[in-house]
Amino acid sequence: MGKALVKSTSTSTGGTTGVTTTVASTGAAGSTPQGITNPPGQVVTGTLEDVQSGAVINYSQAFGAELGIAVGVKVNYQTVIIGGQTVANVLTLAHRGVIATINTTNDGGTLTEKATGATIPFAQVGVTESGILAGSKVNYERIVNPLTGAVTAVALNVVGE
């Protein structure tokens, strides 16, 4: 898997939309913003520049705007050969968010999600011992809290770009 900087994109994000989640077992509902194309779910294409080799590679990513793919973002990518051409078909953000606040009393805090700009809570056992500080760039998994229906970030990893 390579690392690259997105140089161009074919589709504007169209902004964000609110996504409401309802947990079937508890009936709890929560909402979070989500990047979106118009219409939703478009394949975003463009070029990226490999940070090591400088090679310019075409990419094609389903739901690219929803993943936060935009000009200037750093991504990890994987390539395949399609019709004799090398195409990056799997793009993930080099980091998904930045820690905004930390609460060491409850091993949590908030982060700003890179794709949407939303502030979402996180939970991480041993947050201080994990080396997580305000301003840390992190990757994480998003889960839906079954009691509130709200999105929470968990399994945080500090990443360097």
Question: What does this protein look like?
Answer:
This protein is mostly beta strands and 161 residues long. It has two domains: 2-93, Beta Barrel (OB fold (Dihydrolipoamide Acetyltransferase, E2P)); 97-158, OB fold (Dihydrolipoamide Acetyltransferase, E2P). It is built from one helix and twelve strands. β11 and β12 form a beta hairpin. It is globular, with a radius of gyration of 17 Å. The mean pLDDT is 82.
Gist?
With 161 residues, this protein is mostly beta strands. It has one helix at residues 64-67; strands at 2-9, 16-22, 29-35, 43-50, 56-62, 74-82, 85-93, 97-103, 108-113, 119-123, 137-144, 151-158.
Keywords:
mainly beta; OB fold (Dihydrolipoamide Acetyltransferase, E2P); 1 helix; globular; 161 residues; 2 domains; five-stranded antiparallel beta sheet; five-stranded mixed β-barrel
Helix content: under 10%
CATH class of the largest domain: Mainly Beta
Distance from first to last alpha carbon: 15 Å
CATH topology of the largest domain: OB fold (Dihydrolipoamide Acetyltransferase, E2P)
- Label the structural class: mainly beta
Q: Based on the structure given, which CATH architecture of the largest domain is correct?
A: Beta Barrel
**What's the order of the H and E elements?**
EEEEEHEEEEEEE
Low-pLDDT segments, ≥5 res:
none
Number of domains: 2
Shape: globular
Percentage of residues in DSSP E strands: over 45%
Which whole number gives the mean pLDDT? 82
In this structure, how is the largest beta sheet organized?
Answer: 5 strands, mixed, barrel
Strand order of the largest sheet: 1-4-5-7-6
- Structure annotation, total helices: 1
What integer value in Å does the Rg equal?
17 Å
Instruction: Tell how many strands the DSSP assignment holds.
Output: 12
